[in-house]
Amino acid sequence: MNQTFPAAGGAAPPADSDYVAVLRGVDYAVGGKAVFRGLDIGLRRGRVTAIMGPSGTGKTTLLRLVTGQLRADAGEVLVEGRDVARLDRRDLYAMRRRMGMLFQNGALLTDLDVFENVAFPLREHARLPERLVRAIVLTKLHAVGLRGAAKLMPQELSGGMGRRVALARAIVMDPELLLYDEPFAGLDPISMGVVLRLIRSLNDALGISSVVVTHDVREVSQIADESYILSGGRVVASGTPAELREHPSPVVHQFMDGLADGPVSFHYPAPDYRAQLLGRSESA
Amino acid sequence: MKALALDLAASLARFLERLGGLARFALSLLWQSPGALLRPRLVVEQVYNTGALSLVIIMTCGLFVGMVLGLQGHDLLQRFGSEEALGTGAALSLLRELGPVVTALLFAGRAGTALASELGLMRATDQISAMEIMAVDPMRRVVVPRFLGGVIAMPLLTAVFIAVALFGVQLVGVQLLGVDQGQFWSQMRGAVELGDVREGLVKGFVFGVACSLIAVFEGYNAQPTAEGVGRATTRTVVNSAVVTLVLDYMLTAIML
């Protein structure tokens, strides 16, 4: 593999087999607006990788490219060495069975209770005896601390509980790659701490690879082995959380320290404020 | 004038594009329907949701449609001194026209909107995406059972509507206005043929296919926003009503 993305920690570039997924030279645009321009990212096996960046930089789009829900306009998205764009439907579904994804809003099936939500992938893909399904589901629910909530409906759960149920569902098929889309959004500090520890412990206990898309810098820095910061459609920095804190790039500095002023503008492009308030602007 | 022509051309292009999308969607549904029948529990659940849960509104409306038909029919036939033909006239109009058409309109309003909004909300809340990520085909798992449930439920609801409406006609014509009960039933039995019953059930089935297809298509392809789901629901009712009436004319012309 011709490595174009930086190796974390300044070490020698790792071998192909060290990566569970690689995005190489990826271009992607929506409605003529470029989201990615020559994006290079490698997701290392067995690690927790954080993908960070300001809102609208395409972090969720990146996950959808990895899962094959979106196709890149140019470049390659390789998962376990296979180009996702070249997979037919059967192979794509086979690949997805080895993945789990935690959606930002949980995406629990609202007509099923917690138990059936977690059991859903098992019932769809494996013809297991009911006793075994029950044992697996209860084990996964216990892992996220919600064994006692098995009979609740999704509408009866708090945001944090819903996220944890979705996490139990994401790991029920024992995936090799777990993708988290904004797992901390809208969580209270207790739930956030629980989810944070769960991501790290599940990654280590199950020996999987995890990708966490987030803009919660401090939180994810506690558990990430390596991080990428996206801006302007490409990677502007990568490395361990400690390395990123020392990074000289003003974009990284602005993002890590949460500053309003910097290369990334807080304001969407607009006409002069004073002129617009006084009605002198055409686009008032 | 040129702008108007361009607008019309653009509207026509959008309409044809949507029609093409509907045709592809329908073919996909038909292709996957036999497979869905291998999991009958999912289909039976949807027959319950679209059929059994629509029974109250179907029966209530059927009763009042029948009662109105009894009043109007009696008034009309009285002018010709042939009130006993009330049963025949009501049965034929209910079996061949009113039953399937009114049931389809009610079905679109009750079950069709429920299907469209449910699927639209599933898309808006990422449930459809979650299934795709779990390597579960949402067409096979969610859409096809709902479509088949509607197709099976519609002829059954049509039969229930007609039966209850006939009871309503009898209630008003015989019990209230004094039409002879023996004449009412015997004339009906003598005039109604198997072909009339078949016409009603065929129309019920065709309207069921059309209304269910429109509902699942609009819901599944809804924009994932509150406004998008609302629009999909509205389009379901409007398109179902128009298509039902157009199909009714075509089927009547063929079967008469």
Q: What order do the helices and strands of chain B follow?
A: HHHHHHHHH
Strand-pairing-aware structural class of chain B: mainly alpha
Which blocks of ≥5 consecutive residues of chain B have pLDDT under 50?
A: none
Shape of chain B: elongated
Strand order of the largest sheet of chain A: 6-7-8-3-9-10
The biggest chain-chain interface is: A-B, 22 and 14 residues
Oligomer: heterodimer
Give the N-to-C terminal Cα separation of chain B: 44 Å
Rg of chain A? 20 Å
Tally of discrete structural domains of chain B: 1
- Protein structure class of chain A: alpha/beta
- Percent in helix of chain B: over 70%
Description:
The complex is a heterodimer of chains A (284) and B (256). In chain A, 34% of the residues lie in helices and 22% in strands. Chain A is of the alpha/beta class. In chain A, the strands form 2 sheets. Chain A has a 6-stranded mixed β-sheet with strand order 6-7-8-3-9-10. In chain A, strands 2-1-4-5 form a 4-stranded antiparallel β-sheet, covered by helices on one side. In chain A, 39% of the residues are buried. In chain A, α3 crosses α4, α3 packs parallel to α5 and α4 packs across α5. In chain A, β7, α6 and β8 form a beta-alpha-beta unit. Chain B has 256 residues and is mostly helical. Chain B has one domain. In chain B, α8 packs antiparallel against α9. The relative contact order of chain B is 0.16.
Main attributes?
heterodimer, A: 284 residues, alpha/beta, six-stranded mixed β-sheet, four-stranded antiparallel β-sheet, 10 helices, 34% helix, globular, B: 256 residues, mainly alpha, 9 helices, elongated
Blueprint (SSEs and pairs):
The complex is a heterodimer of chains A (284) and B (256).
Chain A: E1 19-30, E2 33-44, E3 48-52, H1 59-66, E4 74-79, E5 82-83, H2 89-96, E6 99-102, H3 114-125, H4 130-143, H5 159-171, E7 177-181, H6 189-206, E8 209-213, H7 217-221, E9 226-231, E10 234-239, H8 241-245, H9 250-257, H10 273-277
Parallel strand pairs in A: 3-8, 3-9, 6-7, 7-8
Antiparallel strand pairs in A: 1-2, 1-4, 4-5, 9-10
Helix pairs in contact in A: 3-4, 3-5, 4-5
Chain B: H1 2-36, H2 40-50, H3 55-78, H4 86-124, H5 127-133, H6 138-176, H7 181-191, H8 194-220, H9 226-255
Helix pairs in contact in B: 1-6, 2-6, 3-4, 3-6, 4-6, 4-7, 4-8, 4-9, 6-8, 8-9
